[in-house]
Design brief:
By secondary structure, the chain is an alpha/beta fold. It is 22% helix and 21% strand. The protein has one domain (2-516): FAD/NAD(P)-binding domain (3-Layer(bba) Sandwich), CATH 3.50.50.60. Helix 1 (12-21) runs parallel beside helix 11 and helix 4 packs across helix 11.
Length: 518
């Protein structure tokens, strides 16, 4: 079997690439997915997303024990389905702060600044805030803002304002800091995955093939050119060829794992597994970073908490230490209308409590993905190295203290019966950190393991081609050099849109002129 383009992974980036590359009727495109079709009914129900973790459509990865979170093992949900993690996430659409992307460009990722990506953000969406210089109204990603927010959502925003946080209109416009209602990817009460938005409308094209249940063993090469894939399908080896190129969209865990199994990675580490080195790239699998959250601020409610009409959390507060809106906010908080806690605690029943979650946006701790075996059925070791850096511990403590102040505000007086977690005074830094180490869990935003850059440690260059190869591209969260503020799904869509232009040798869209913003 032979196609012009092979795309590995039908997640967020893969669906965008498949739709855009197949617009060329003369190009044959094969989208390859390890999981199955998105036929689980719970996918479309916004409130059901927590139930999808650990289900048949989740890779159900686990980290190694984390020294700085009480030696706990963390569950890492990743979508094992057409649509990828856009089928199991919490549906928030947050682009990130402009300085996030400008920081990438300044560090050597030319063409990936905020102005460069803005045309793709706009083109990808149908926004409730359009018409606006910041937003589009003709794109595949259809967004909404809750029209009848949960009463606790209203209390949360009022409490944040009571604590001095100035409300903002939205998190994707002129000012990101401040409380506001979330922009959600929900259409007519149903989740819209990226597969729904991009892939489904393209499925009738004769030049597009989608193959599910295909596990990638390794890449095939002819010299330095990536010429195809070695797959495992129904337990049997299958070879498939690419005339033009192979695009890895397999995600922050599987993209580096595929590269390493194919001999692209640290020569010393590959030799330990008996893998011959094709390209010695020590950066493959490194630079792993993830947003941490905490469900550590839980309150018992005076009255029964109504069920959500959306996805349990309808508002976010992004905040900065110094209040400078021009810099990316360092902290995030949210009101969740159900009790949330780690397995270190015993939370109250649903309907009797609510949670103020909190976290920090730009972790400095770095971890790694490491192969345990050349066998593609053996999951790699995942070590995010949570809270290894002192900055992360300090900002986490500050986020908790700010969020507890919101929780104890007068705005919550009609709902707040008593604080359940932490539930005690945490007087010393050691007490605060001990609690947080037990209360920490992933925000499901891992990035960085095939880092983009122009330096010798980068895995892909600014064109997103793997260094030392030809015809081998990567576009997914693994290429992100530094985590953005908030979820990464919106950024990955825009980045995949731009990468599709690069692959098709089209001129990238004209960078946005920030002077046009009012």
């Amino acid at each position: 079997m032979q196609y012009d383009y092979l795309i590995v992974g039908a997640g967020t980036a893969g669906c965008v690439l498949a739709a855009r590359l197949s617009e060329d009727e003369d190009a044959t495109v094969c989208l390859i997915e390890a999981g199955g079709e998105a036929d689980e009914p719970a996918i479309s129900e916004p409130a059901m997303w927590p139930m999808l973790e650990g289900s048949d459509i989740d890779w159900a990865f686990k980290t190694v024990p984390q020294r700085h979170t009480a030696n706990r093992i963390h569950d890492w949900a990743r979508g094992f389905v057409v649509g990828g993690s856009s089928c199991i996430n919490a549906m928030a659409h947050v682009r990130g702060h402009p300085s996030d992307f400008d920081g990438w460009a300044a560090a050597g990722c030319e063409g990936w600044g905020y102005a460069d990506l803005m045309p793709y953000f706009i083109a990808s969406e149908t926004s409730p805030f359009a018409p606006s210089p910041y937003h589009g109204d003709q794109g595949p990603i259809r967004q909404m803002v809750p029209s009848d927010p949960h009463p606790l959502t209203r209390c949360f925003m009022a409490a944040a304002e009571e604590q001095g946080h100035v409300p903002t209109r939205e998190h994707n416009g002129a000012r990101m800091t401040g409380p506001t209602l979330n922009t959600l990817v929900i259409v007519d009460g149903k989740r819209q995955s990226v597969a729904d938005a991009y892939l489904t409308p393209a499925l009738s094209r004769a030049n597009l093939t989608v193959r599910t249940g295909c596990l990638v063993d390794r890449l095939a090469f002819t010299g330095t050119r990536c010429s195809g894939l070695h797959l495992i399908v129904d337990g049997k080896p299958v070879h498939i060829e690419a005339r033009e190129g192979v695009v890895l969209c397999a995600g922050v865990i599987n993209s580096p794992a595929i590269l390493m199994r194919s001999g692209i990675g640290s020569a010393d580490e590959l030799a330990k597994l008996g893998i011959s080195t094709r390209v010695d790239l020590p950066g493959v699998g490194q630079n792993l970073q993830d947003h941490l959250l905490s469900g550590g601020n839980v309150y018992l409610s005076k009255d029964e908490v109504p069920f959500t009409q959306t996805q349990h959390s309808e508002s976010l507060l992004y905040s900065s230490r110094n209040g400078d809106d021009k810099l990316a906010p360092e902290m995030v908080a949210a009101c969740v209308v159900v009790p949330i806690a780690t397995d270190a605690f015993d939370p109250p029943p649903f309907g009797e409590a609510y949670t103020l979650m909190f976290g920090f946006t730009h972790p400095r701790s770095r971890g790694a993905i490491r192969l345990r075996s050349a066998d593609p059925t053996v999951a790699p070791d995942i070590d995010p190295n949570y809270l290894a850096e002192e900055y992360d511990r300090e900002i986490y403590i500050e986020a908790m203290e700010r969020t507890r102040a919101i929780g104890h505000s007068q705005a919550f007086a009609d709902w707040r019966k008593e604080e359940f977690l932490p539930g005690v005074e945490l007087n010393t830094r050691a007490e605060k950190l001990d609690f947080l180490q037990k209360a920490a869990f992933t925000h499901h935003h891992p990035v960085g393991t095939c880092r983009m850059g122009s330096d010798d440690e980068a895995v892909v260059d600014p064109a997103l081609v793997v260094r030392g190869t030809e015809g081998l591209h990567v576009i997914d969260g693994s290429i992100i050099p530094q985590a953005t503020t908030g979820p990464h799904n919106a950024a990955i869509v825009a980045m995949a849109e731009r990468k599709s232009d690069l692959i098709r040798a089209q001129a990238p869209r004209t960078p946005f002129d920030p002077r046009t913003l009012s």
